[in-house]
Structures are given as C-alpha cells and as structure tokens.
Specification:
eight-stranded parallel β-sheet, alpha/beta, globular, homodimer
C-alpha cells in the first residue's frame, strides 16, 4: 500500500505509448481498458473472473455509490476494494456525468449541482469538494476531478462557458484532494469539438498540475471522425509523462484509433452492457446471439478466445440461453466481451512494443470487414 | 459410458440409507439433492460451480426443453450433457407436472395430454411414448415415467382415477424405454394422501419393474405432517434394493425428515429460486438479505460455509447487491444456497454412516430455533 503513484512510458510507436501506472493497489499496464463496476459490481461477473479477462483496474461510479449504499457506509465497511472484493486498483468518476444524465431536478451553479436521486427523489448536492471527499471515502486509487460534461451539440459560447466552469472546479478538486502515497487525481479536459477550447482547457489543467489527464465530453454523439480530430488537436497539449484517459470510450475501433493517437486508458459500459443484451464482440465482428441463424451452430463464439463461453459452449447453446432470458447468458457473454477487450489491449501493448501497431490496425479492419460480409 | 445402472446400499440407520447410484455419466452418493436445471442451465450458475457445491446430478425439464430448444435439436447437438457442459449424471422429469402447471388449453385423455405452449401458443402432445423418446433424445441418465400429478386436494375417487391412469402410463413408459447400459427409468407412485391408493400404486409399479421408484404428488399443499405420513405409509411398500426419489422436495427440514424415512434422492427449485429473491439458507435459519438490518453487517452470511458468498463478502455487501437488483446477488446467493444443500446432504450421509442421524436432526432443529429467535 506504500507504492508511489507513478507512470512510466517504456516504448512509443508514433503517438502510441506502452506504459505502466503504479498505484496503492497495484500496477496497470497501459494502454488499459477499465471495466465499469457502477454499483460496486461489474455486472454479472465475480471479481476474480473480471481479473481473469486481463483487467487490472475497474471503474466505480461516485453518483451511484453515494446514493446506495452511501460513501460513508462504504468507508465504515473498509472501503470499496474490500466491500466488493476487488483488491486491484479502482478509478472512480466524479459523479458529474451521471448527475446530468440520471438525476432529476438538477440545479447547477458556481458551487456545484443540487439534484434529486433517481432512486427515491431524495435531495443531494455534489460540489467539487464533496465529490473528492466521496472518492476518498470509497478509497479510489485514481480520483477524477469534478466537472461538467459539456452537452452535444453545443455552440462555442456554451462550450466555453461550460469548460471554464469545469476548470474552476478542477482547481477546487485539486485543492480538496488529500495527498496519500499511491493515490492520484486526474484532471479532465473539456471544450466540446473546438480545438482552441480544448487547448485552453489542457493548458489550464497543466497549470494546476494533475497526476493524469482525461479527455472528457467525447463519445456523446459527435461521431468517430470528429472524436479522432479532437484527440489529434488535444493530446499533443497534454504532458507526455502523465497517463491520458479517454472517458467513456468505446467500440474496439474507437480504442484502436485512440491508442494510435496517444491515449493510455479507457472505460466503457459497452462490453458489459452488450453482454446483457445478447451482443458479442468477436475477431470477425459483432454477433447478435438472439439471431435464429445460431440455433444449430455447434461452433464456438470465437475460436481464438480462451474464455469459458468460447471454450465450453456452442453458439447454439448461447443462442438458447439468450432466447430464454437466462442469467447465464449475461454471465457468459459479459465474460467473453471483457476477455475480448482484455485480449485487444494485450495485443495493442504487444504491437506497440514490437513496432507492429500499423499491422494490427490493418488486420483488425480486414477481419471485421470479412466478418461483416459473412454475417 | 459403459457402467451398468446400479444402486448399492452401504449402511442403514433406521429407515435411512447411505448408498450410491451408478449411471453412464458417473456415480451419485445418496441421499442426494439434485439442483434443478430447467432450461438447460441451473439458473445463475456455471456448471463447474454447481459441481463445487457437492451436487453430483442435476434435473432437467422435459416440458421446457421440448419447447425450447427442442429435443431433436439437443440430440443433434450431442445431447444435454454436452449442450450445457455438464458431464455428470442428469435426471429428466417426464413433462407431466409442467404440462399441468404451465401449459394452456390442456386436454387429457387415455393417450396422453394435448396442450399449447405457454411460450408461443404452438400445439403439442405428450404421451408416455413421446415423453420417453424426448428423455432419450436428451440423453438423460435417469428417465422418469410419464404420469399425471394428482391435484390437491382430491377426493379418493379422483385420486384413484388419476393414479390408475398413471399406472397404465407407467407400463407404457416402461415398454417405450430403450435399455442402454448405465441408463435407467424410474416409476412414480401416486395416490394422493390415501394410504391404500399409495400402496396399490407401489405394487403396480413393482409388478412392472423399474430401476428406481419416485414418490410424486407431494409438496403440493398438503403440509409437512401429511407428507411424512404418506411417506411412512408408502416407503415400506417400495423395493429395498432400488433408489427412492421424493419429487419436488423441499425445505431442509422436509429433506431431513424424508431421509429419516428412507428417501434417497430429492429435487427442488427452492435453493435456486430463493437465491434469486434474496433468500439465504443458513445454519441459523433463513435470512432475507433485503432486510435493512443487514446494511451495516460486516459478518459473513454463514460463518461455517465455504462458498464464495460467505468467504469473500459481507452481509452488508450482499444486502447492497439485493437492493440494487444486481445479477451478482442471484449468482452469489444461488451458489450459497446450493452449497448449503450440498453440505446438508453430506452431513446426512456422514450421520447415517456414523449412526448419529438422531443427533443431526436434534441439533438442526435447535440451531434453526435459536436463529429464528435471533432473527
């Protein structure tokens, strides 16, 4: 528990980096994907199964956990790692995004956001100081600054006002953060799709000084091309010696493109949520297991995957479970999807190390195109 | 796959027996509890996790599997063991019970039962011959005769008519059964709560000759006292050298009482269904994990249990999962409940072997009474 919070870069391949982030609860090889454990559980998975997919860090949600079971309760029960039996690193978001997307009767002012719980209507307020305190109570290895996720689309004036508010909150977040060995806090770049605002935001965060830098406000409807353009304009403005985290991203192709642009960390509900709706990511594209064409298919979901869904079961069986709405369908497909993401990140790290990232990108798109044609 | 279907009794303690049933897919130590795997999955459990609870055999449902994915399809996919990745023995029910409880527009006559699927309204007919054929297609180690589960309450005339129909169907089931090494068929005693009918039924089945004998039509609302009375009147009429199976039973106290009366095999949805509704069986009684008194309780669900739910998590965490409706709640509580049942059967077998069954019964009821007072 005494490791310093540290980030090392071992290799670069163009903008892409192979690195390692060290925290109080262990190290994370980057580029890394963080499965989402919203309410203190990566849905439909035991923690040891999550780890078996290659995940070395998970994300917890401040908004959900503050409402249920409550941050002070988690602290009294020994912190989130102990509560949910996940002894590896945890990153928590700040609650800002969920407050705006889930809570009712939101009132935002300079101090923070007042809102009512989507669960029981109870009144709450999140400020930068309270968000940081909650993340401390949860014992997050990586704390995120409290920000406002700029809505999309937004005019340059709206994006500017939102970004500058987030930068004032970033300073308050940084000041509220309690320094402890092995724990760090990341700032979040905002600014919508506007290069100037993004660069202003990056500069403001660098001036404050954070242990890592996230790019927020993307994957909100702007499309992959625009997202990559914003990354091209933003990432060079971030410190080279700190981890870079692209929040809420994404599809495999999004991750591959963002790694090539210098992003080190990702989180997304896609592999877990898809696993609960019969969607599977495979090396030949995405499959809908509810589709009747799988009913008699004895082949595995993905012949190159070593997860239990692929080793022990046929597509026909997975189809049957999905049609019946069986919990085991969610369990097996979530496991598979997280393993797919884990394997993808492992392959990306190996490709950066061996200087073959361009080959990986080309063969990924070839295989997906062939699979799409076959499906 | 070449073992003969055989039953040995090693020890007796009063009416209770310690034995072993050998089948094509392995042996079952008796008294045994069979987790229910209705639609080709023990809900919320991986098969290897089911096995880890001590279960050596599971039950599959003819009615559900004939409708979805279809018996012929399961056969083409290599049988139910391969389809669901459960290589140990499987017993299938005959479909008679579910047709009467789930299907729509049932028409019963001497030939069998015509009905419409509760899933899509499609028309089907189950006869003794088709039920046995389906169980053959599923590759069940233990096939059950097709019967009519007599409704409760029933007059002696109703129970008699129903029982004699089931006995005619039992003969047709026996004749339709395809003999294979390691595979067996059980007859089912009916007769409601009427001792004379039960004994007539047992005699009729013995005259036909089965590999095992089930007691059906109990746990349908008659109460534990009546059920035990029927067992006292029925079990002595069954062959001593064949396994005895009490269908659809039951609570731990039901199982303990039935083992003491000479029953060797049980199945029930209680541990699995309870696991999906926040109910946990423990050595000090049954707990509802949704109850707010667990919210801050750092103690394990059952300190004497070695399952993951008890080893790795607090009651507070399980309470949180149940309140949030998380799939992991169903996964952990189902695992725990099956482990509780597995441990109970193991304790019953040890007590029969060591001649301490009366002590086990007394200490079980003491602990449950103390727990009930504490809860």
């Amino acid at each position: 528990m005494s490791a310093n919070f540290a980030f090392e870069v071992f290799h670069c391949a163009g903008a892409a980096r192979l690195g390692r982030l060290t925290t109080a609860h262990g190290a994370i090889d980057t580029p890394a994907f963080m499965p989402v454990g919203t309410a203190g559980t990566v849905k439909a998975m035991l923690p040891e199964s999550v780890a078996s997919t290659g995940a070395q860090i998970i994300l917890g949600n401040t908004y959900h956990l503050m409402l249920r079971p409550g941050a002070e309760r988690v602290a009294e029960l020994g912190g989130l790692h102990r509560f949910m039996n996940w002894q590896a690193p945890i990153l928590t978001d700040s609650g800002g995004y969920q407050v705006m997307s889930l809570a009712a009767l939101r009132e935002i002012d300079e101090t923070g956001v007042a809102f009512r719980s989507h669960l029981d209507g109870s009144r709450h307020k999140l400020t930068p100081e309270r968000s940081i305190e909650i993340q401390d109570l949860l014992d997050a290895d990586v704390t995120m600054a409290f920000d406002e996720c700029t809505s999309f689309p937004a005019t340059v004036e709206q994006a500017s006002q939102s970004m500058t508010l987030s930068m004032r909150w970033a300073l308050r977040s940084r000041q509220a953060f309690r320094a402890r060995p092995g724990y760090g806090i990341f700032g979040i770049v905002q600014g919508g799709v506007f290069a100037g605002l993004r660069q202003d935001s990056a500069r403001a965060l660098r001036d404050i000084g954070f242990d890592g830098y996230a790019v927020g406000g993307l994957a909100v409807g702007e499309g992959q091309e625009t997202m990559f353009k914003v990354l091209d304009e933003t990432v060079p403005a971030l410190p080279a010696d700190r981890p870079r985290y692209l929040m809420g991203v994404g599809k495999p192709a999004d991750i591959i493109g963002a790694v090539a642009r210098g992003i080190d960390m990702f989180d997304c509900v896609l592999p877990t949520r898809s696993g609960r709706t019969a969607q599977a990511f495979t090396r030949s594209g995405t499959l809908n297991l509810r589709n009747a064409r799988h009913a008699d298919d004895m082949s595995p979901l993905d012949a190159e995957c070593a997860c239990p869904a692929c080793k022990d079961y046929s597509r026909a069986y997975l189809h049957h479970l999905c049609r019946c709405g069986e919990i085991l369908a969610s369990m097996l497909l979530t496991w598979h999807n997280l393993r797919y993401y884990g394997d993808l990140m492992r392959a990306l790290r190996a490709a950066i190390a061996s200087g073959t990232l361009a080959d990986l990108v080309a063969s990924f798109h070839d295989a997906q195109a062939r699979g799409g044609a076959a499906a």
